[in-house]
Hints:
Layout (H helix, E strand, L loop, with lengths): L1 H34 L1 H14 L2 H8 L2 H4 L14 H12 L9 H8 L6 H12 L4 H42 L3 H10 L1 H15 L9 H9 L16 H19 L2 H16 L7
Helix pairs in contact: 1-8, 1-9, 1-10, 1-11, 1-12, 1-13, 2-3, 2-8, 3-5, 5-8, 6-7, 7-8, 8-12, 10-13
Amino acid sequence: xxxxxxxxxxxxxxxxxxxxxxxxxxxxxxxxxxxxxxxxxxxxxxxxxxxxxxxxxxxxxxxxxxxxxxxxxxxxxxxxxxxxxxxxxxxxxxxxxxxxxxxxxxxxxxxxxxxxxxxxxxxxxxxxxxxxxxxxxxxxxxxxxxxxxxxxxxxxxxxxxxxxxxxxxxxxxxxxxxxxxxxxxxxxxxxxxxxxxxxxxxxxxxxxxxxxxxxxxxxxxxxxxxxxxxxxxxxxxxxxxxxxxxxxxxxxxxxxxxxxxxxxxxxxxxxxxxxxxxxx
Length: 280
């Protein structure tokens, strides 16, 4: 009974963390979309890779690349390596000069401004032994390596954004981990309701809670101990410290992301299904 109750409380907390992380994740995506970070990072990555503003602009404005954005005023947030290679060689060889002819591409590439990009492109061409398709493969690998770096920088920025959003969500909703745990421990009915909803989620191939509205509705369907209605008394230093630590713990938990808590929920659910149900 005691061990089963502990597992139920743990599942309840994990499920609540998952819901909060879902809310934070959608806010993250909204922020990233507003500032168009993916497209901006991609454009900066291409400019840094090529080192030639004119060449980078030609590649960026190539019909194959612009077509990926889904609109004339939009900028692409992802470019397949094969598309980049085709656009690059089309940009190197002026229109009408047969961009599929290896010698033409090699001659024009040699006229690019000196720099690492020129040397890299010439190196790929020379190593291809006259095979333009093979040279494109080299450019694709070069582009992918550069995009790995761009992706790393994007994820690093998003980690800070995620932490900030997790803090904001925790603060706005007033989600104190210690208060939640205490409530789940003391109230069998609440514990059973949250555990039941968690079980539905963990038993599906894909989470039943997929959208922002789903996460919010699910979170507030329970009478959870969240919000700022009850606060430690004035002068209760220990109570306020506990409250702040509880809020901080929730912030760190939410910053781990919804996939982390969803996977953990499915794993720990096995422990619950192997033991007796609390409250029986």
